[in-house]
Design brief:
Blueprint lengths: L23 H12 L5 H28 L7 H10 L1 H6 L19
Helix pairs in contact: 2-3
Length: 111
């Protein structure tokens, strides 16, 4: 509220932007293009939260790999190592390719 007791127009927002890394309009555009369906706001919020969680898990793993190697700068190799070392991320992103990330370590199961 401003000094006059009226709502401050600049601070009023239409959507929930608590910790959102991905804009809901961009997610909506991608989903509508891929599925040709209408998309609810709740599904956009949940998808945004899910994508944010996955990205933060990848970045946290990459940060830990870089720190373990004694580096202060995270490289694509650290991110690739973090993805391949985590069981859930490696199954989710089994066909991923990170440029300059080095080669994946292939196990005997994939032969």
């Amino acid at each position: 509220l401003g000094k006059s007791g009226k709502k401050d127009i600049k601070k009023a927002t239409t959507g929930d932007k608590e910790g959102a890394f991905f804009k809901q309009t961009q997610i909506k555009r991608v989903i509508k293009h891929m599925t040709n369906m209408r998309v609810s706001k709740d599904s956009l919020k949940s998808l945004s939260a899910g994508l944010t969680y996955i990205i933060l898990e990848i970045l946290d793993g990459g940060k830990n790999v870089a720190i373990n190697e004694g580096k202060k700068k995270m490289s694509p190799r650290h991110i690739n190592t973090a993805i391949t070392s985590d069981l859930e991320l490696s199954t989710l992103l089994k066909n991923h390719y990170i440029q300059s990330g080095g080669s994946k370590k292939f196990g005997m199961q994939e032969l």
